[in-house]
Specification:
Blueprint: E1 2-11, E2 18-26, E3 32-43, E4 46-55, E5 58-63, E6 66-70, H1 73-77, H2 82-85, E7 89-92, E8 96-97
Antiparallel strand pairs: 1-2, 1-7, 1-8, 2-3, 3-4, 4-5, 5-6
Length: 98
């Protein structure tokens, strides 16, 4: 099993750039399957904490004070705020294999 980690810089308008960290597992067909995503984000009017973690029951997700369990990563991703899921721009860093 190969685990990788990389950082994604997300850019939204006049807000400060933010970074989320992504951990994933390389599948047998060479696709990265997400294990965890986490970001402590800063904005001109406050801050935010977002997180998705794969568990035996599915994917735990957290969007500030909202939390839940989703059956799939896609379902958990849909619970994340738009500035994370649909930023104006983003850049993925190099994958570091752990």
């Amino acid at each position: 099993m190969t685990i990788g980690m990389w950082e994604r810089i997300i850019m939204n308008g006049y807000e400060p750039d933010n970074t989320i960290r992504i951990w994933a597992e390389l599948s047998e067909d060479d696709k990265w399957e997400f294990i965890e995503i986490e970001g402590f984000l800063s904005f001109r009017d406050g801050s935010s904490h977002v997180c998705i973690r794969r568990t035996d029951e599915g994917f735990d997700w957290k969007n500030d004070d909202q939390k839940g369990i989703a059956k799939s990563f896609e379902e958990a991703w849909a619970k994340m705020p738009g500035f994370v899921t649909h930023p104006d721009e983003y850049e993925d860093g190099e994958i570091i294999k752990l």
